[in-house]
Structures are given as C-alpha cells and as structure tokens.
Amino acid sequence: MPMVGSDLEDLKSMLAIARKGPVSFGVCLGKKPENTVLILHRKKAPDMLQRQAKKDGESAKLACGEIEVSGKKASLRCFEEPPTGLQKVLKKFFASTVGIPMKVTLIAADGSLIEGDEDGDEEETTAAPVGQEETGPDPRLAHLSAASKELAGQIETIADPAVRAKLAEACKKIVELVNRGDADAAEPALEKLQAMVARFAGISAPGNTTTPAPDGWAAIAARIEPQVMAALKANHPEAGKIRAIWAFAQEKAEAGDTAAAIKAVERLTPLLAAPAAPAQDAPPTNVVAFQRSRLLWIEAKKFMRSDLEKFRATVTAQSADDDDQSDIKAAVDDLVKEFNAFDTKLEDVLDEITQTPEGAGRSKLKKDADKAIGAYLAILDKPFFQVIDNNPFVPVNVAGRGKQSLSVVKATLA
After folding, report:
1. 148 contacts 178 by C-beta, under 8 angstroms
2. Does the predicted model carry a pTM greater than 0.85?
3. Which residues pair with 64 in a beta bridge?
4. pLDDT tens-digit readout, 239-262
5. Which positions ≥6 away from 27 have C-beta within 8 Å?
6. Which phi-psi region, left, alpha or beta, contains residue 347 (left: φ > 0; alpha: ψ -120 to 50)?
7. What are phi and psi of 326, to 5 degrees?
C-alpha cells in the first residue's frame, strides 16, 4: 500500500535534509509506483534501510546507497546494481505519492552514471533565471512565501526581545530570497530558522498536525532524558525500544520537526512507566568495535564486487574478437555469480551483537559470526578466486581484500 501518514512525513523531512548532504536510503519497488517504499536516514547503514523497506514493501526489487537532493534533482548512489526500472518508478513515486516532482539520476558505487533523467536533459541546456524553470516560476516559491509569513507571526510570540529581533532579521532575509525567486537558497534557510523558532517558542514546523506541549521541546527533553538514561542503566525490559524511540525523537527535534519529536516522547511514557527488570546481564559493551568491523566488512564487499565487475568488463572487452567470446563471457559471468555466496549473514550477526549484553547470548552470536567468517574464508580459498586475483587482464584484489577485512573482524570477536 502507498506510504502515508507519519512514514510519508518522515520521508519528506529526510528529503529536505538530503538537500544539505548525502543520507542513506533503502528502497523496495512496488508493483505500482505509488506502492514503492523508500526509507531515508542520516545515521543508519543503507543495507539496514533496504531490509526495512523489503519488510514493508511488496516485491524483491531492492536497492540501497546514498541519496542527495539539489533543486528538483535527486541523485542516488547505488551500492549494488539497481533493479530495472528504478529510475522511472522513483520519478513517478516522487511526483504522485510524495508530491514533489523530481528528476532522478542513478549513480554506481564507483561514481559512474547508471541512468539519468533523459526527459530533463534538453531543459537544462538553456539557463533559466534563478529559482525559475522554462515553464514558469518554481512551484516551491508560493509555499515558501506562505511559510515565511507564518514563521514571522510565530517569531512575534517569543518573549525575549533580543532573540525576537535576531530571528525576525533572519526571516526578513529569507523573504528577500523568496522574492528574488531563489527557492534553492530559501528552502534550507527556512528549515533551519523553523528549527530555531521551535526551540525558543515550542512551535512545530508548518504542515505538522500534532500539537506540541506548551513548554516546548527543550523543557520536554530536559525532563525525559534523565528517565530514559535511568531506564537504560537499569536494563529495562523494553530498553531496545526505548533507545530507538528516544534516538528518533532527538533526530526529529534536531531537524526542526518538534511535533514529531514530542509525539515520539508520548510513546515513551508508558514504556518508562513499566518496572525495570533485575539486571542479569551487563549492558552491551564494546559496541563501537563491532560496529566498525561490521562497516569494514560491508565496505570490503563493495570493493570486492567492484573489482569483480572490473574483471568481467575487461575480459569481455578483450575477448570481443575471439570466436569463443560468448563462451568466455558466460564462464566469467559464472565466476562473478559465486560472489553471491557472501550473503548478509556476518553483518546481521554483528548488528545483533551490538544490541546484546555480555553473557550467553552474546557468546553464541560470536560463535555464529566466527562460523560465518570461516565459511567465507573457505570460499576465498577456492581456486577461481585465486585465478581472478592473479589474472593477466586487469589488477584486482578480491580474495586479498576479503581475507584482510575478515581477519580484522575475527580479531574483534576474540
């Protein structure tokens, strides 16, 4: 089913953040474009977002990586080869479900172009005035103008005259940008100012339907955070859920979406009211080391796959004139398929370890991780991986890179 409600609002908020720099994404294509599930996050790993999108979606057509938005363009750097039709489906999804028409460009992990938005190529050959397309004014300007006026009214409610004067001056500059038609500059500036006003006045960003508490986010956070820390320290039975909700609330508040942050805190109240369980195990320790080793293995797989693709492309090109070219290409493709043996088992177990306290549970997970490492090392010792690393066509380091990263992960488990 289409993304609606808070999920859709979260996506819109993250798209705004993606205008300031790349954020992680995971996507599951819907059987219809409007049923596509796209999840963005600033801190979570792309592959985790992909698994969540798959869980919420309705197909096996998945992709993950980093997304960055500039003007009306969304650039997606895909960590693996994206499914067919991703560019066209996302373009329709942005226009129909999200309500933000955008051109979509797909980029490979190595930075090369996979697929661009051909519909918009000719439009860009002639420069249009700032904030204006050939078809007329940027449609964002009307919204920005109305939002600026609403924000100016909110600023007037702030009691401190010095703060009020500074915020009013900042709002005036945003209005000037809107009047000049510079939506690309006005939009992020407005979002930043909305966050500042929310902190001083306890007012949520426009477009949110949840009514914030009268004392504002700063006061709410000061009251709730000690309760959260105490619950986590006491090994609360819902510690994982409390930690996740509190992190979400802080992220929303930082992005200026005070209403969403307060709504998340409301979900925390009944959890914090439940009695804490007796501390049987110490809370998770050495989390950073396991997180780093997990990211190291994910990054290693990305480079290993890139080297395999480089090997395949080179062999295919150099055997183009060979009578047995089709047989050679098929043989190389079969070798590359062997890479699928490196599934997500190891990173999934490492992720579980970071959420599991010291004790029997973590010890078992360490054994599972060590078993996965042993299986991967056995695969890397197969002759064909050695052949690829020592091939005469192109320098690559598939087995070597894999063994090096796995040895680091294994040391972390010790």
Report:
1. yes
2. no
3. 26
4. 777 877 887 887 777 777 777 888
5. 36, 37, 38, 39, 50, 53, 62, 63, 64, 86, 90
6. alpha
7. -65, -40
